[in-house]
Design brief:
Elements: H1 2-31, E1 33-36, E2 41-45, E3 48-52, E4 63-70, E5 76-82, E6 88-89, E7 106-107, H2 108-111, E8 118-123, E9 126-131, E10 134-138
Parallel strand pairs: 6-7
Antiparallel strand pairs: 1-2, 2-3, 4-5, 8-9, 9-10
Length: about 140
């Protein structure tokens, strides 16, 4: 009788442990509600949650991936769109080595200042922000 109890106990433990380990995934997959969080599709059920991040690349090098959210199966919706060359740069443009004005892009942070008009020019082989109303007034070196 003791041998049967031990065998039965071992079998129950062998069945129970995987079930306990897999239970959170089962609950999330079957009862979790999908929501988007930081460009990831996440499922949440009570105090359980799981998020999936994905890195998607487009086949065409002239396209870039754009995250559009999550579909009804809580999978990423990503579309590839044609890249476009922005006329604006970032703050790393300031002080960049240049030969011509066209080598420089006005940083978006300056372009967004509506109270003043700024330009970027190649002065002394460096991209320099200037006051567009006073061509001689350097803002940055």
């Amino acid at each position: 009788m003791t041998k049967k109890v031990i065998i039965t106990t071992v079998i129950l433990i062998a069945i129970t442990i995987p079930a306990i380990i897999l239970l959170p995934n089962f609950l999330l997959d079957n009862f979790g509600e999908c929501h988007a969080e930081n460009e990831a599709c996440c499922k949440k059920f009570k105090n359980l949650s799981s998020c999936v991040h994905t890195d998607i690349a487009c086949d065409d090098e002239n396209e870039e991936p754009v995250w559009k959210g999550c579909d009804s199966d809580c999978k990423h919706l990503i579309v590839c769109v044609e890249k476009f060359e922005s006329e604006f740069g970032d703050d790393t443009e300031i002080g960049k080595t240049c030969s011509f004005d066209s080598d420089c892009k006005l940083p978006m942070s300056y372009a967004l200042i509506s109270s003043h008009k700024y330009e970027i020019k190649c002065i002394d082989s460096k991209c320099t922000i200037i006051d567009a109303l006073d061509d001689l007034s350097k803002i940055t070196d």
